[in-house]
Amino acid sequence: MSESLGPNSAEQVIEAVQWAVSGNASFEVLGSGSKRPYGRPCQASQALDLSALSGIGLYEPEELVMGAAAATPLSEIEAALAEHSQQLAFEPMNLSALYGGGGGAGTIGGVIACNLSGPRRPHAGAARDHLLGFQAVSGRGEVFKSGGRVVKNVTGFDLSKLITGSFGTLGVLTEITFKVLPAPQKLRTVLVIGAGDGAAIQAMNKALQSACEVSGAAHLPAAVAAGCGVDRVSRAGGAVTAIRVEGPAPSVDARCRTLRGLLEEFGEMGQLSSGDSMALWRQVRDAVFFAGDGQSQVWRLSVPPAAGAETAAEILDAIDGRVYYDWGGGLLWLAMAPLADAGYKAVRGALKASGGHATLVRASDEVRASVPVLQPQPAALAALTARIKDAFDPKGVLNPGRMYEGL
Amino acid sequence: MRMPEPDAGVISRRSEIIAALGAIVAGEGVIFDDDELGAYECDGLTAYRQLPLLVVLPETTEQVSRILDFCHLNGVKVVPRGAGTSLSGGALPLADAVTLGLSKFNRIIEVDFGNRAVVAQPGVTNLAITAAVADKGFYYAPDPSSQIACSIGGNVAENAGGVHCLKYGLTTNNLLGLEMVLINGEVIRLGGKHLDGGGYDLLGLITGSEGLLAVITEVTVRILKEPQTARAVLLGFSSNQAAGDCVAAVIGSGIIPAAMEMMDKPAIHAAEDFIHAGYPLDVEALLIVELDGPEAEVTYLIERIEAIAGDVGALGVRVSWDENERQKFWAGRKAAFPAIGRITPDYYCMDGTIPRHRLPEVLNRTAEMSDRYGLRLANVFHAGDGNLHPLILYDANVPGELEKAEDFGADILRLCVEVGGVLTGEHGVGVEKRDLMGEMFSEDDMKQQQRVKCAFDPDGLLNPGKVYPTLHRCVELGRLHVSRGQLRFPDIPRF
Ligand SMILES: Cc1cc2nc3c(=O)[nH]c(=O)nc-3n(C[C@H](O)[C@H](O)[C@H](O)COP(=O)(O)OP(=O)(O)OC[C@H]3O[C@@H](n4cnc5c(N)ncnc54)[C@H](O)[C@@H]3O)c2cc1C
């Protein structure tokens, strides 16, 4: 790759993209580069480094809204929110542990571009549910905006959804406006110890089907629990199923009581205080258990929650690996010894019956270039995807190949 | 309202089209008799009426696919229609278009408690989804006031909201999957019972696309367990300003109620006369705040809200005594539109959203406009998320009043945009707000949205004349105008 361009303003981004469109280049779009190993390796002639587009421009805590330049570090945003006891309710993942540290949590633009959401996803929504509006420069070299700063808005197509999770292949995000929410007053985690995967899925379903407004439901099989940084979990002596409860203090106590009653049939009960809860859920969110030596390949599968255990069993029949569950069984993290094809046939084959999709989150550049990193699409959907790409970036100058080969 | 020029060629081929579609949907599936077509001449925005070329009522996805394929090959426009309750004219027929009604898609396909999901055909009503899971104590959260009538497919097409969306989100936040048919007849499935499909978020894009991108033929939504307790609180205020301050103070204190609705004096009186909900009549503004969750949480939050309301000068606080009374408090709110309908020959419902803290100011300014236009105004709306529903009272039989009401409405929406808000929070742009799109979007913004339309419907056959004020041809939109071969700003840093 030749030199990088580092525009200082949206105008300079337009200039740069127009220059690329006129036949000179294609760009790998970077905020801080923390998610470069996520997705397919991009085939661009140079980098477009947005790190100069940084800073929180709007924060009205009582309006629950924040606006920031796209490459504002996530750490800066989270610090500003914490001062007002607020948070990003979708719990953006920090992939730096998985990718060998150093990279940091990245920028808000990267979080939105990858639609990264953590354990609160089933309860509070994904990153896509919290983006209110944005400004971007399309691959045509034109600036466009969509959405606004209010929560309820159906004016025109919801391009905020389309741009979230588009890996920078449709537009270079320059400004982002998003919803922020009060941080919970109190936080507890109810634990069930010793449940097998199938029973754990039932336990989590029971919790999620209750009126307890569970904001996290994860299951760590014994081997994974043993590697957890929270003593109460690593020393539990078996698998740990964790149910998170957040909110006003009297409510949290009442709900924990109800949950303990509901779940005691599944194993020995335990509970984590706020500090341990925070540590545990951060590790669940960031797949810290699989950081290891950085050698294993890691998949992330989204499946119907009730099918979680069977899907995992089918994969582990064919592949030597370890799994843990989030989203009440709807999210499977899988780590496996490296294979040239990352075992994709076994992994994706296991999704045939139930539906769902699998993303290869960690593997070498060579493997990610040859194995479809994102779930392959049926022909009609793939063709529609290509037409949408063409509507924003007809010359393919933005992050070529980042999502799918040739797109 | 200017609609695209009807295509005389298509109209002259009407009998051929009837025959061709009749061959796809057997029996009563094609309606072409003028009397029967009358039932389809408008949607909930009754000021605009137009008989469709014909109506077709398919029953299967395969039939939808064949109908669209036929229309595509023959250059015939198509207007999708659910229950026809849209308040923005989204389902308004066109003289040269087939209205494709989904009323026969009326089955719940699957109730799956294990995955907390319901799969339904698009013609199923919003309330029928809750009814299908209520025996197990579940419900579908988005609850538009039209929920007994509106279809789930129409909800997806409009991204419908309701009073409980403050805490539980809009349709888009509760949708897991769908099946849709493109204008070329291709059937595409998105999402399912899992979350976040990977690839571009087309599920999110289709939601709120007002029938311009595809016809929705199946919907998967998530269901939730009914909260243990729910209680509604009535808070009366001596001014709109005080009620608005209360809304800001509650949200600012970190409480997100299940619902927070506001009514002004005319709306309170109309609703109370109609439903006898027990609303106080000696106040200028009323908030209905609902708290739900475990008993302990509800009790605790009600105490805090009472304290906040006291601080901003609430005149009275009444907490619903039992489920019956809670339902009664809501019955007044949910029937507010028809209640207003009893005190005026016609009303025109607006739907702008504004940043919450601008509420008092916007209510004052719309009251001034009401004086200026000489038309009464009633306000009943989703205060918690700043989504206003000013109802302009008018009489269509008085010459010029409809136009005056429309001008007044446009001024209200311009004001919403001016204070940092948007033209529509949940009712959609349709034909109604089409010509105001330029207030919010630049020409480039709208062109980019229309390029997305081109990716789905290159000939512009699906619901044309809605949402976008200017129709551009896709070839034109696709052209790239790049003249510069060099960086004009040689000062972009390089490294
Ligand atoms: C008294 C009253 C109260 C209301 N209250 C609310 C409220 O609280 N919140 C709210 O959000 N709305 C409300 N509405 C508006 C309306 O009910 C909603 O917009 C609803 O979602 C429309 O659904 P429908 O089935 O009637 O759709 P229709 O009116 O038939 O169609 C609406 C739009 O969706 C398209 N469409 C419909 N079905 C499909 C499909 N299957 N595939 C593709 N496109 C389709 C149509 O082309 C059209 O553009 C209210 C309306 C009334 C009359």
Named CATH topology of the largest domain in chain A: Uridine Diphospho-n-acetylenolpyruvylglucosamine Reductase, domain 3
- What is the CATH architecture descriptor of the largest domain in chain B? 2-Layer Sandwich
Instruction: Give the tally of structural domains of chain B.
Output: 4
* Count of domain modules of chain A: 3
- CATH class term of the largest domain in chain B: Alpha Beta
Oligomer: heterodimer
The biggest sheet of chain A, with number of strands, parallel, antiparallel or mixed sense and barrel status, is: 5 strands, antiparallel
Protein chains sharing the most extensive interface: A-B, 109 and 106 residues
Number of helices of chain A: 14
Biggest sheet of chain B: strands side by side, in what order? 15-12-14-13-17-18-16
Strand count, sense and barrel status of the largest sheet of chain B are: 7 strands, antiparallel
| Rg for CA atoms of chain B | 24 Å
- Overall pLDDT of chain A: 96
Fraction of helical residues of chain B: 25-40%
Kindly report the CATH topology of the largest domain in chain B.
Uridine Diphospho-n-acetylenolpyruvylglucosamine Reductase, domain 3
Note poorly predicted spans of chain A: none
Mean model confidence by pLDDT of chain B = 95
What is the SS-derived class of chain A?
alpha+beta
Tell me the total number of β-strands of chain B.
18
Helix content class of chain A: 25-40%
Class computed from helices, strands and strand pairing of chain B: alpha+beta
